[in-house]
Amino acid sequence: METRYAIHPEHMKTFDTETIRKHLLIERLFEPGRILMVYSHVDRIIAGGACPAGERLELAVTKELGVEYFLQRREMGIINIGAEGLVTVDDREYPLGNKECLYIGMGAKSVTFKSADGKKPAKFYFNSTPAHAPYPTVRLTLGDAQRVNLGEPAQANVRTIYQFIHPAVMESCQLVMGLTILEPGSLWNTMPTHTHERRMEVYLYFDMPEDTVVFHLCGEPQETRHIAVRSEQAVISPSWSIHSGVGTASYTFIWGMAGENQTFTDMDHVPMSVLK
């Protein structure tokens, strides 16, 4: 478990490229045979990746949590971005195919990850947030998600948002999570951009060809910065920061949010004239 601390926006203005990347970019999440995690002090979210290549991987508690088992006071959302796999929650198995989601409520004592074929590993990306009440474990496919179509070809931002862990679909404590798929030829996400002071967000970019990159925009609207992001890398977005991006080709990204509310549309839009 790696720990990342919160950043004040005034402090962010002094960062060079490498410092921004050190604080906000998660470069490595999927290593065969391991579970890798980053604990962010921004709303205490954990972003992690499990890549079982043979043996089953167990989600173990760490000192940072100060509890007896990982989900004693937390909930978790998992989306598989690799080959087919299995997640076992307290002795019950849940198969997860590519772009399928599993929500695990507070109180689950055992969580393990396994690939259906060790030579074609699953890649389980997860977000975990503090929780105050237990909710049932729920498996979701793209067909179960609430679907929102946005964008226009003229603005190169045609995309479909799949809301998995969302009040319109199922109950959770504070975690909201889903994925967005851009259409071929579309490059922009979340533009026009916004902030939401009441919630932070983590983006995981994937389904990107090897020779492509996404320029993820961050910082205050009047003091923007960018991070060059490759496939299967994630970016932590504090609540005061914009979070949008443009790729050199179309891509998919997972978004996960934590904070004061679960209102997906609760955002402060930023006029184009304000951006600097």
Describe the structure.
The strands form five sheets. This protein has a seven-stranded mixed sheet, with no helix packed on it. The protein has a seven-stranded antiparallel sheet with strand order 2-21-18-23-15-14-13. It has a four-stranded antiparallel sheet with strand order 5-10-7-8, with no helix packed on it. Strand 7 and strand 8 (92-96) form a beta hairpin. Helix content is 4%, strand content 43%. It contains two helices and 24 strands.
Shape: globular
Total domain units: 1
Put simply, the count of helices is 2
Q: In the CATH hierarchy, what is the class?
A: Mainly Beta
Name the beta content range. 35-45%
Q: Tell me roughly what share of residues is in helical segments.
A: under 10%
The largest β sheet comes out as: 7 strands, mixed
The CATH homologous superfamily is named Jelly Rolls
Compile the SSE list and pairings.
Blueprint: E1 2-4, H1 9-12, H2 17-24, E2 25-26, E3 34-40, E4 46-51, E5 57-58, E6 74-80, E7 85-89, E8 92-96, E9 101-104, E10 111-115, E11 124-130, E12 138-140, E13 146-150, E14 159-165, E15 176-182, E16 188-189, E17 194-195, E18 199-206, E19 214-220, E20 223-229, E21 233-237, E22 244-247, E23 252-259, E24 268-269
Parallel strand pairs: 1-3
Antiparallel strand pairs: 2-21, 3-4, 4-11, 5-10, 6-9, 6-11, 7-8, 7-10, 9-12, 13-14, 14-15, 15-23, 16-22, 17-24, 18-21, 18-23, 19-20, 19-22
Tags for this model:
276 residues, mainly beta, Jelly Rolls, seven-stranded mixed sheet, seven-stranded antiparallel sheet, 2 helices, 24 strands, 43% strand
